[in-house]
From TrEMBL, chain A:
Taxonomic lineage: Bacteria, Pseudomonadati, Pseudomonadota, Alphaproteobacteria, Hyphomicrobiales
Organism listed in the record: Bradyrhizobium guangdongense
Name this polypeptide is given: Helix-turn-helix domain-containing protein
TrEMBL record, chain B:
SUPFAM superfamilies from the UniProt entry: Calcium-dependent phosphotriesterase (SSF63829)
Pfam families: PQQ_2
Protein name (Swiss-Prot/TrEMBL): Glutamine cyclotransferase
Transmembrane segments: none
Domain Pyrrolo-quinoline quinone repeat per the UniProt entry, residue ranges: 73-207
Signal peptide (residue range): none
Top-rank taxon, per record: Bacteria
InterPro entries: PQQ_rpt_dom, WD40/YVTN_repeat-like_dom_sf
Amino acid sequence: MESLIIAAARALEAGDPLGALNRVALRNDAPSLALRGIAMAQLGDLAKAKTLLRSAARAFGPREAVARARCVVAEAEIALVSRELNWPPKALAAARTTLASHGDLANAAHAGHIEARRLLLLGRIDEAERTLAEIGAAPLPPASLVVRELVLAGIAIRRLKTQEARAALDRAGKAARQAGIAALVAEVESANLILNTPAARLIARGSEHPLLLGEVERLATSTALVVDTFHHVVRKQGVAISLGTRPVLFALARLLAQAWPADVSREALIAGAFQARHADESHRARLRVEIGRLRTQLEPLAKISATKQGFELAPRKTNDVLVLARPVEEKHAAVLAILADGEPWSSSALALALQMSARSVQRALDELARSNKVQSFGHGRARRWMTPPVPGFPTGLLLPTPLLKA
Amino acid sequence: MKRSAAEIVTEYGPFPGVEAVHGVSYDGTHLWFASGDRLNAVDPANGKIARSLDVAAHAGTAFDGRHLFQIAEDRIQKIDAASGAVIGTIPAPGGGGDSGLAWAEGSLWVGQYRDRRIHQIDPDTGKILRTIESKRFVTGVTWVDGELWHGTWEGEDSDIRRIDPDTGKVLEQLDMPEGTMVSGLESDGGDRLFCGGGASGKVRAVRRPKRR
């Protein structure tokens, strides 16, 4: 192959995109376009990178199917990093097949990793896991291993398996240092932060303290009655009562649990669950009805008794009642939670991931933007949302080099 | 045109710490190959790396009897084979699009990969003396017994072909097995052609057909 292309590819592999660009900046042959595209992506100019990779794919001849497939994979990765989650997965799958059938197993695996990351972002955890399993244990270059372990960690975190997550992140860190790419090491470190930053708040007997993910996990085996505001369920060990579709009942359950073992006044319940400032007779009547419904729902796990001024919770067969809440309670906590990954999201990708309507997401984003909790850039369809401070574009573009080496 | 399957006689490598083989050459004793940031001398008797020189080595390699020539980025380095010192540099004719390199009859011959051409250049100045057009992407280039051979690599196929140095017409073609790439070419002066195997990290010896 060509001298300068090999020199540029080696620079890129060593994590030196500027060195790669220096060598091919003025060339417009297909491999140079592809290398420039990858270098631009690593430098954060994703729009330019996408254009270059597209031209590269066109410029490769009809006999160069593998080179072309690599460009498609690179473009898919850019789409993923830009949170264009509706980028055609079929094109990626086809490229993956082409690469595998021509023996380029490392890049085929990379294509699989991108697919798994997309599924993970969409919350399709089982599918993400299946996709990773398909890739199997082919020997992968260190940079590729980092991605694989990051996806595994992501799956474990979402399943609240902190030990598994920690082990995967340790392996990812080792592979990142082996790859010698600083950006990868940083990415693993920021993933580690998730495990060392409070993931929730525990409210019990009127006091509260932050919980790490590992502590949340241990809570699952506790014998306490847990009111879980993440999943809108009331649970104890194996029994879970979902109140996801009954927000008023859930709000009442939570108010009672937070006050436990004390009771809660009717006024406080009405104010907290109905958002009513002054309780009148109709509110009291409604409260009686809703408490009756909640009592039926919670029957297996707890009793609700009337007191002189209101109601109190009486859990069955346990002496502990806990409320598991988000670290910071926000009206649009779910949107913020997704944006917390630091990546730029389109509102349509958010809607896809949250299974909300585009309109609701847009409304939430507008509200959050007014209070400076999120920022946007770009216009129209290219508009992206992030949580400030803008951490810059991700460095996660992990094209396993020898994009062109073959 | 005679066309047949390439007969692979021997395979060397892969070698420890070598990701890919770019250029190959032969100094009568050792087989040299370029691996990015090194030039390595292999003993063909045991297939082991006998010695390595730390020089940038991204494409073709050649030997003139005393010096090694090595393409790096967009230039050709002239290297003292004994000390490994770079004693001169000329611009490569393809400006970095260069692939194979051969020495013959006082000239250097340089393959220009995607432009499907072979240039004959002055080894002192880099001036292009003439250009031969090929039909396929050109990788390695070599001369033996007045025959000009070059490797091709286009898409996922490679072959080795002897061409008419005046017209570029293909006279003979040896098809490499599927998935076997030719990234560099050198003759041992006899009936073997050494082929760099690209990312496989191997060097293969292919039998050169006898002339009738």
